[in-house]
Design goal:
The complex is a heterodimer of chains A (145) and B (556). Chain A folds into two domains: 28 residues, no CATH class; 114 residues, Cupredoxins -  blue copper proteins (Immunoglobulin-like). Helix content of chain A is 14%, strand content 42%. Chain A is built from one helix and ten strands. In chain A, strands 1, 2, 3, 5 and 8 form a five-stranded mixed sheet that branches. A three-stranded mixed sheet of chain A has the order 4-10-9, with no helix packed on it. In chain A, strand 6 and strand 7 form a beta hairpin. Chain A starts with a helix and ends with a strand. Chain B is mainly α and 556 residues long. Chain B contains 16 helices and no strands. In chain B, 56% of the residues are buried. Classes of the chains: A mainly beta (145), B mainly alpha (556). Chains A and B meet through helix 1, strand 7, strand 8 and strand 9 of A and helix 6, helix 8 and helix 11 of B.
């Protein structure tokens, strides 16, 4: 019982230290957008990859039943990519398994999550929140060269 | 032979009559839960086959419709009918009752009508929105009305429980509320506070689904849903804990370890079940990381009463074993009545809950959640919690309750015993496979995990095969349960000795219970205050954001 509570305090300490010192917090971007006007709202009117500095990219995604735009992006190994995602219709998920990229995509809001792709490879990007009859088809890819 | 003396009906007769009606009410709850479990298990098994690519569901009854039915029937309907029935029994059985059962029956009927409405909406394909019904997926109004009636029905059952307890307390101001009745009233208080969230959500969803409002604030509905969604989990757990504390000890001649510890644990669950819901929304945009962190802290807090419960259960085992002259861990474990399904069901559930609890701590660990959120890990987690300890406990209790309520002999008791072990075995396989697939990144809630042969998905499919094997074993186990439960009623063999379903008495050595622990009304107010403290900030931020409204859609 005492051991259990001590473990909980320890866990909380580790999590809090990681959050404050290293910035390990769950994706919590606060930025609203009109979900009915996504295709007219910059930068989501032209979704895709933008290079912001050497080795740093921003990727703007629109999630819409049952696909992501862009369907594929390509970045060099070692790049840090910040994904900005919004939905033009219902709730979606945005997850690249085997990386720390995982966020909900809520209509009316922009989600943001960053990841450094160190190893080359082709990563699968999936919608991991049920969005309708074709949910199991909703995927894209991230190619790291 | 002397002529029979005509008897004047006494208060005792009235009570006996009233008790008989009460028994029918409880029995109806239990059998409703049993039927729902059977239907839900069939859908569950087909889902397993579907995900393992053994079958493809026809478009006329597709995977997501079935998944919605499985989730709603298991998580919301089966559990709720059993728990409200069991708590009605807890009150009716521990206090001499003078109120009629009318309110209880009305509550049951409203719940049943709500369930029927929701089920029809799901089966006719107008509500494939899964049991979380996230807007702006827009189901037919029938679905939302049905869910609302189900909740309102439970409020009537709760009112019946509260009125009985209050009346008893008024007549016995110096006595402690009997422990089972206290647990019932405490849990239902928590439930009322929690379901305010879903009712608030329905106030937005129903006008919108009727076409009266053009759009919906998706973030707000999600916050209302999860305000309710986590205490829902604790509603199941409190139902199971009630049986662990107060019923399981009877099966080996044990006693409640400590009356005050039990009451304290339930009060802590009442206080801490609600102010934690944001831990389901760690990955949501539009909510700041600080509020999420606050809910991480409170969620760790609600683990503590579970630690207390684990401690108390082991102490109960040990005290009873020592009294019987048994010492030593292995000897005590062997001494416990593993061949009695009323013990074995809950006890096997406790073993599963050790893993379920650890997994829950992982899920709650803030930034760590990104690794498991919306993966199969989560599905594995709730099948080893609500699908393991909670369901096994309710099934074990059903094996005790049905004979006690009907005076009949349990049908095929050996089958009942095989059934609980089969469930344990099948659920262990299924849940382990799901956890593993989740760690590899397999998403939940998809009908197919192959993603057209994509590289990243290559390792997921084989785990789905294992999950479907485990799921089939559980479905067979449910079939055995239905045979025993209905067979007991249908075969109609009276028991030689009236079967009883009793609650354990308290250990005499335990400390006297401080009266403050009996003040449920005040603790309820504290619980409301904590919920307000935890949610006022995030809700105000949500309102101030003036979020854009999203139009509803039917994407299935």
């Amino acid at each position: 019982m005492i051991f259990g509570v001590a473990m909980l305090v320890l866990f909380l300490g580790v999590i809090t230290t990681a959050a404050v010192v290293d910035g390990f917090v769950p994706p919590s971007h606060v930025q609203s957008i009109d979900p009915t006007k996504v295709s007219q709202t910059p930068p989501f009117d032209h979704p895709g990859l933008r290079k912001v500095a050497n080795g740093a990219y921003e990727a703007y995604y629109v999630a819409r039943i049952f696909s992501f735009t862009p369907a594929s992006i390509e970045v060099p190994a070692g790049s840090r990519v910040t994904f900005y995602v919004t939905s033009a219709d219902v709730e979606h998920g945005f997850s690249i398994p085997a990386t720390g990229v995982n966020t909900m995509v809520t209509p009316g809001w922009v989600s943001a999550v960053s990841h450094t792709f160190r190893e080359p490879g082709t990563f699968l990007l999936v919608c991991n929140e049920y969005c309708g009859a074709g949910h199991q088809l909703m995927a894209a890819k991230v190619v790291v060269k | 032979m002397a002529a029979a003396t005509p008897r004047v009906p006494t208060a005792d007769d009235a009570r006996a009559l009233s008790r008989a009606q009460g028994e029918l009410l409880v029995l109806t709850h239990i059998y409703t839960a049993t039927l729902v479990l059977g239907v839900g298990a069939l859908f569950g098994m087909l889902q397993g086959f579907s995900r393992a690519n053994f079958i493809v569901m026809p478009p006329s009854f597709d995977y997501y419709r079935m998944l919605t039915a499985h989730g709603v029937l298991m998580a919301l309907v089966f559990t709720t009918f059993f728990i409200t029935g069991f708590f009605t029994y807890s009150v009716y059985h521990t206090m001499p009752r003078v109120r009629s059962t009318r309110l209880g029956w009305t509550g049951y009927c409203v719940m049943l009508v709500g369930t029927a409405m929701t089920t029809v909406a799901i089966l006719d394909g107008s509500a494939s929105v899964l049991y979380t019904f996230y807007a702006p997926l827009k189901a037919s109004p029938l679905f939302y009305f049905g869910a609302t009636f189900l909740v309102l029905g439970t409020w009537l059952v709760a009112a019946d429980i509260f009125l009985n307890v209050m009346r008893w307390k008024a007549e016995n101001p110096r006595l402690r509320i009997p422990l089972p009745a206290f647990i019932a009233a405490c849990t239902m208080t928590m439930w009322i506070i929690a379901t305010l969230g879903v009712v608030a959500e329905m106030c937005l969803l129903i006008p919108w689904s009727l076409g009266w409002t053009p759009g919906i604030d998706v973030g707000l509905t999600r916050m209302f849903f999860w305000y309710f969604g986590h205490p829902l989990v604790y509603f199941w757990i409190m139902g199971a804990y009630a049986i662990w504390y107060a019923v399981v000890p009877v099966t080996f001649g044990g006693k409640v370890f400590s009356d005050s510890l039990t009451r304290l644990a339930f009060i802590m669950l009442l206080l801490l079940s609600t102010p934690v819901g944001l831990h389901h929304q760690y990955l949501d945009p539009g909510i700041s990381a600080g509020w999420k962190w606050l809910h991480t802290v409170t969620t760790y807090g609600v683990v503590i009463p579970s630690f207390m419960t684990a401690f108390a259960i082991f102490a109960t085992f040990e005290l009873a074993a020592r009294k019987a002259g048994i010492r030593g861990f292995v000897k005590i474990v062997r001494w416990l009545p593993w061949s009695n399904p009323v013990f074995a069901g809950p006890a096997l559930g406790m073993i599963l809950f050790i893993f379920g609890g650890f997994g829950g701590i992982v899920n709650n660990s803030y930034s760590m959640d990104v690794l498991v959120h919306n993966t199969m890990w989560v599905v594995g987690h709730f099948h080893i919690t609500v699908g393991g300890p909670v369901a096994l406990t309710f099934i074990g209790a059903t094996y005790g309750l049905v004979p006690a309520l009907t005076g009949r002999r349990l049908f095929a008791p050996r089958l009942a015993l095989v059934q609980v072990y089969t469930w344990f075995f099948g659920m262990s396989i299924m849940s382990a496979a799901m956890h593993w697939a989740g760690l590899l990144g397999a998403p939940r809630r998809t009908s197919d995990v192959t993603y057209f042969g994509a590289q990243g998905a290559a390792t997921w499919h084989e785990h789905m095969i294992w999950a479907s094997i485990g799921g089939t074993i559980v479905a067979i186990s449910v079939l055995m349960f239905i045979i025993v439960a209905t067979g007991t009623f249908v075969s109609d063999r009276p028991a030689e000795e009236a079967p009883r379903f009793e609650f354990a008495s308290t250990n005499e050595d335990a400390m006297a219970t401080p009266p403050v622990l009996d003040r449920l009304g005040r603790w309820g107010l504290v619980a409301v205050a904590l919920a307000v403290l935890a949610y006022a900030g995030p809700l105000i931020a949500q309102f101030q954001a003036h979020a854009y409204l999203a139009p509803g859609m039917k994407t299935w």
